[in-house]
Write a structure and sequence with these properties.
about 35% helix, about 475 residues, 18 helices, alpha/beta
Amino acid sequence: MIRRTVLGAAICIGISAAAQSATQQDIAQAQRHLNKLGFDAGIVDGLWGDATKRALEAFLAETGNTYDGELDGDELRLLEQELTSRGLSVGPTVDWEYRATSIAFGGYEFADQPVYEAIKTIREIPAYGFNVVTLDFRCVGKADLSAPESYPLGRRIGCSIANKQILKEEGFVSTRRDATSLAIDEAIAAGLAVNLKPMFHELGRRFGNADASGYGTVPLDIFFDGDGKTWSGYVPTILAVARYAQENGVAYLTIGTELNNLNSKIEEDRRWPEIIASVREVFDGQIIYATNYNNDSNLRGMSKSNVMRNVDIVGLNFFPSRMMGGREDYTAEEVAIAFHKAKSKNGRNMIGEGRRLQEQLNVPIILSETIFPTWRGSANWIFRGTCDYENKGRSGWAYTKGPLQAKTPSDEHGQTLAQGFMYAFEDEDWVHGADYLYWAVAHAYDARTDTQQYGPCSSWLWDDNTGIKGLIKKFHDE
């Protein structure tokens, strides 16, 4: 409700509930509008507080109105009218330059049909607001750098990339045999930029005496230079991938993802400036490095990382564990509030630390592994995309309350998590973009895994019926 002062007389406009009983969505909308108009309402969290009250009072005073302690449709309409009169958008300010979705090729080296079926879906990606497709593949082998161009790409660069004869009647835009090459051709034809994302996680299982997490501590020399037998080393592998990216018109190259999982000293290693300079000699696109950002992370330490200080874009895989305190039911507004309240182990606000990291590094930051798993309570373990049915009945915290617990599929929870993410980040101007996992996964499809494990709990965007990809489209279109 507002009171407009006209020649000393107060005229009441409308009737409504008190501000404290307004919905979280209404309060969040008012906060968003006030911030956009230059009245500082604080973070957009849907909670009524002193900052929001002061901002609303200041706005009403400036426009010749008096606040009477009630927030209703009148205030919201007045805010929207003011935005329109100033030529500002009434909707959220989401102008992310980097809007990606990923295809994971798994560990295929041979002619596995699922890889090529996934590639066929690339042409549908732009319809949902994306402008980049990320091609995710594994690189943990030995490269044959002397192999001629006619040899399969996987053999030449030491990565798991399918290769098979492509027939014209299959309907691809080209007949190139290597899966990544064919995917690049399809993406460029669809107007998409390409990000190549080689993954190195399996090195932990091979060289690091993997623990329960599946990772292990890989000696630095083996990681960077190889073991002389089955692994060529990171340096020759990433340079081979970089040359391939340049030859194929690739716009982005992710040179590493969560490498500290393999050894906590990798990101601070002194070799990085020289390695990245060597990559730049053969690749003139944008270089990305992505790292996990969860409750155990220390972004102030990350700002000193030798790898992050030398790339063009930094990716944060933003996974605040148990952010709903273990609750299995919640609203999108509550998810947004939890994102804003999430704290790292040093007690600092995670979103605030993300903003500071962007200011310190002075490079764009993307949310590089954004995922909305479709199972009940998924906000607590965002990084987990499988139902884990086989763990039912097992003892131990990880299997009963932790990330490995058996899960109940829920399309509703995937959408709630997606909407909450959008509420949380729609006005965070330090965020340059996001990579939504996954558009498709080229794993072998069979009835057991599709219906009992990955499918119902995974959030794969292309073939789901959850509406998540529709929410993403709306988020970016507005």
